[in-house]
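Structural prep section.
Before we set up the soaks we want a predicted structure of the protein with FE2/S2 (inorganic) cluster in place, mainly to decide which crystallisation condition to try first. Input record follows.
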Amino acid sequence: MDWASDSLKKLEATREERLLQEPPTLSDADADKLLQEFHPDYLGMERNVRVGPNADTCKFPHELADLLESDSHLPQNFEPSVDIETDVLILGGGGAGASAALALEESGLTVHLATKLRLGDSNTVMAEGGIQASLGVDDSSRRHFADAYVGGHGKNDSDLLRVLCENSADTIRWLGKLGCTLDCNEDGTFRLRSGGGTSVPRVLACKDYTGLEIMRVLKDAVLLSNTQTLQEHAAVELLDDGAGQVTGAVLWDRNKGNLVTVSARAVILATGGSGQLRLQGFPTSNHLGATGDGLVLAYRQGCKLLHGESYQYHPSGTAYPEALVGQLVTESIRSTGAQVVNAEGERFIGEMTFRDVLAAAIIREVAEKRGAQTPTHRAGVWLDTPLIDIINGEGTLRRQFPGIVHRFERYQIDPAKQPILIYPTLHYQNGGIQVDRDGCTEAKGLWAAGEVTGGLHGTNRLMGNSLLDITVFGRRAALSAQNDLPPRRPVTLTCLKKSREQFKNISDRREVLSPQLFPTQAGMKVAFELQKAEEPSATGFNSSGPSTYEPPDPFSK
Amino acid sequence: MKTVDIKVAGKPVQAREGETVIHALWAAGMAESVKTGCVGGVCGACTITVRFPDGRPGRTDLACLCTAEEGMEVFPCPVDPVPSVAPQASPNAGKLRTAYPTLDRCTKCGSCTSACPMSIPVMDSVLRMQSDQLSVVAEDFTTCIHCGLCRFVCEDRVQPHNMGMWVRRSIGASLGPLKEAVVAVEPEQVEREWKYLLEGNPTERINHARQFRNSGGIEE
Ligand SMILES: Cc1cc2nc3c(=O)[nH]c(=O)nc-3n(C[C@H](O)[C@H](O)[C@H](O)COP(=O)(O)OP(=O)(O)OC[C@H]3O[C@@H](n4cnc5c(N)ncnc54)[C@H](O)[C@@H]3O)c2cc1C
Ligand code: SF4
Ligand code: SF4
Ligand code: FES
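Run finished without errors. Recording the tokens verbatim:
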């Protein structure tokens, strides 16, 4: 890293002094000003959508607005005819979807879980830092609530947030029963760390692989359960009965290349976030499938989206080496002592302030030329990781953050010896589909849980509240669907047809199709034949519902 | 920017120096040739094998972490998952043997360890499974991303990663309720605190929440 040697010298020169320094503080008013001037959410890169339930009432980032106004991948002449009949169809194989499936294990219902990639390929598996639960001595569900509420700028849905906070201990126990191992202290209590915006240590973790630990256990449990999994099946449209009830989905089987129509009495949408839309050209920490599909699907069914303009840019995305650009460096590394330092070797903000404020501060430093420039024309500020071992003893970083070490070692960077260059990365979709405390959306027959929903976190999420969100609300949505299971109704594309009528009135629409399914950068093709595959569907489930099987006309492109 | 020429599944691909195989494939319009999930080295979807022109030994790797080098040959190596066995309470080597009878087939060839992209000492850990050191095994597999490469290369059909998962889940589930430092609070006080946080206009609520964060209680 010769290109950085000047700047690194400055950083090392101030290290000793910084060690004893109190972090710089910022008044609430100054924090607001910083957000207004530098946070990407506040730069006016949004516009109104002109169709659907949020038409002309609230703004969305251009990239998302375009998708909400786009036509479906389904050909105009596609008519659904049922291939699979099930009770509950879960869409999305991340933490929320898997939790929902496991909650239905004892229900006696037939459950299908369809997911675009493989089961577990998700944002969940990537989570590093941890999961919040108010298990500390000075802690309570109320204090947890207060932290998240202030962090979310008071825009949170209090009802949802209260449910989240009151269920944290129970959820940790549930994960424990499934065999998740979270780090403990010597006395057998959970090790609790601080996270940005927590007023007491409240974050439980499994090293810096918390999402991996949770996801691989959930995945193993789902594969051992009665849930029928349809992997590499992407939802391309929701079906409805023509009278306001969601009744299933059309899936694209990516391997066989055909469409599969599923009739369900309840659909649970757990398709996660949209970091791969890469708003304003930001890099992202998200997995390949995070393209906001669920937002588009639910929107066509008349479900309102909340805080659609609000995204979280994680302050510590990697800015160097190029191969790791956008990838996350967990926040816990800051709570363990790593300071954020500009190219002049100066601290410019408290490391444990709220994420949006810290991200804005880093963007300001770079904009005002106090960042370090990489040979690949990126810029960032330093995360002084060597401090961790200096403060906590040699070997701490390697022991507590093996993931970071493993990733950087490949590029001859040892974070215990050398700081890491960071710049904000598009990380989390704060907003999403409006739901109630049981995950019910505004459309009958449709539930939603996890990152695809909005309201819970207000306009800024605290670290560790999302893993809690998916395990609490994934299960709640499933139980609610089980208790209020509507009767089976016919599958039609009435809502899509209505949306198509509305699209006609917009002349300057971008000619893209949605849901987008994959990042534009990946150049992946969405192609399917309308010819039914010869064998029966993957699960061999027989259809005998109100809509009987009728092979559609062969379709040629 | 400098470019390098590599081959993926026999097809020539031009990559920017320093870029990962996955990103090179995206730019070349060949994204579908390697399965991709997280693009961050933790889901295990993008398994490949790599050969180098300069005689360095070839290896298995993850395409989302592997950077392109001049002359490198990449072969997609998708690994299908194999069914696992449900965890059991109070695990020991005997129970593990019943769950996975191939445990003792290991011939100590070491292929699994060389194949593991997470640098897990897989073979050593299999030996530890045989000798009932299960808590060390659980620790060994902490960073396992279930890519399945260790099983894929094992000619003796040992399934180290599934056994590692079985051990971790079995131990995790047997720990029982962990000690929680929860302090009992009177239900009336709990209700009072909720009321304090939930009632009033938006300004009052955010101010109350701000105050509550300072002490964890209502400040009169
Ligand atoms: C790098 C990183 C680190 C994080 N760290 C933390 C942390 O430390 N603590 C914390 O609390 N949170 C963290 N988060 C956030 C948290 O991991 C996610 O918000 C949460 O896991 C989302 O879970 P989910 O189930 O809603 O979505 P996901 O886990 O993303 O799952 C969505 C699933 O739906 C699938 N899908 C998408 N579209 C379709 C479609 N059209 N049809 C079928 N399937 C589809 C996806 O492929 C995926 O499998 C982190 C996130 C990232 C990216
Ligand atoms: S590859 Fe198979 S036989 Fe060889 S050491 Fe590993 S487990 Fe044993
Ligand atoms: S132990 Fe096996 S499955 Fe786990 S990461 Fe290593 S090679 Fe992959
Ligand atoms: S894509 Fe997940 S490990 Fe490479």
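Observations: The two ends of chain B are 63 Å apart (CA to CA).
Flagged for discussion at group meeting.
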